[in-house]
Design brief:
By secondary structure, this protein is mostly helical. The protein has two helices and no strands. The chain has one domain. Helices cover about 60% and strands about 0% of the residues.
Length: about 50
């Protein structure tokens, strides 16, 4: 609890679980790398800005 600056065990556990869910979501997104087809023109998109 010292490292996280949280006051209760419950808060530490809840924060840890939220972090775990976030990491798992990121892993799922990373697993799609190179598997999705994208048709777009980055040069044209950059000119629109």
């Amino acid at each position: 609890m010292t490292l996280s600056q949280l006051k209760t065990k419950k808060a530490v556990v809840e924060t840890g679980l939220k972090l775990l869910v976030q990491i798992k979501k990121q892993e799922r997104i990373k697993s799609l790398r190179g598997k999705l087809k994208w048709d777009g023109d980055l040069d044209a998109m950059r000119l629109d800005q």
